[in-house]
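re the bet — no i am not wrong, look at it urself. input seq straight from the record:
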Amino acid sequence: ELQALAMPDSVLDVSIETVVEISQFGTHGADEIEFLLQPHVGSSPLPIGKGASGGELSRVMLAIEVVLAGVDPVPTFVFDEVDAGIGGRAAVEVGRRLARLARTAQVIVVTHLPQVAAFADQHVVIAKSADGLVTASSVTAVTGAARISELVRMLSGLTNSQAGAAHAEELLDLASQERLAK
């Protein structure tokens, strides 16, 4: 899974160390488990909490969830900015993986990346507004031209960009091809 998430040379190891006698284990077990990530060729494996970047953490978490879903399916996954710290090709691969996971489960994703949003079966925009006293949120489903406009806004910060629209359509085409490849 990590190779598919734009981490081609990474290695994830699990270190298990018995910290108490088996006869004394309690509610927390008898072992200390640590995930060690070697993100690149030539790097040393480090505890994931100490050596991994935000983007690497996001992708490792997604990879673990995808693997676990294959072993013990759950009906719904919620990912809040699982794409933090990534962009470009890695974001496309995260979007692709989330779309594949959504073939067998409901997947709800909060993202700010158009490369991920383009892979959604349903795309909604959540907007906050404030009148000085109350802050409110609204949810709007976007389809067709409105979805392209939202992807353009996510891509460029602009609402009327021909280059952004072409890129948004390219992302949607890529996602559509992925759905057809089921």
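see?? The longest strand covers residues 11-18. told u. also The two ends are 17 Å apart (CA to CA). so pay up
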